[in-house]
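Input.
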Amino acid sequence: LPGDRQADSLIARYSFASDDSPSFSTDGRTIAFVRRYTEGINSLCMIDADGSNFRVLIRDAQAGEIAWSPDSSQIYYASGNVWVANADGSSSRVLADLPRYVSWVALSPDGSTIAFSEQEPGGTSSAIWTMDADGSNVRRVTDASSGNWSSVTWSPDGSRLLIVDDQGSAIFIDPGGTSLGRLTPPEAWSVSGAIAWSAQAA
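Output.
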């Protein structure tokens, strides 16, 4: 749209943009998302929930999924490693320099713990890890033989994680990795991508 081209000069340069991975701030006022122009070129952007005030926060973010801090003052995003930045895009930095490629990140509701998915060398399998919000205490929570886990979301009370693999399976685990049961979709359905929780989820 003309308004997009005026607000973001890279659209004119690449003649294409695709927006994905939207994430509401915890106060519900802002949506962070990733704008992709071509392979390997993207930006981390925000827009107010009413559609106004579009802005580009970080160029060449190579961002994947985005998570907000509980007070909406910071964002966490996956870009090979786990990154954190102020909500205006300033002070962007690597929170943890991890040895494998991070493709998904989710912050616990109380802001204390980050769960993330990382790819093993060669990209043939993925595992779920957690770490403290300051980047310390990194620990793996899924066994190597348990599945190729690609996405993770927290329950609203922070007591459970719901993880999804590349075969369409999903299970509940506690933050320590103990299995709490399988999510059973309707017959002939499979799960693709992360699963959202309702705010009232038990």
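The chain has two helices and 16 strands.
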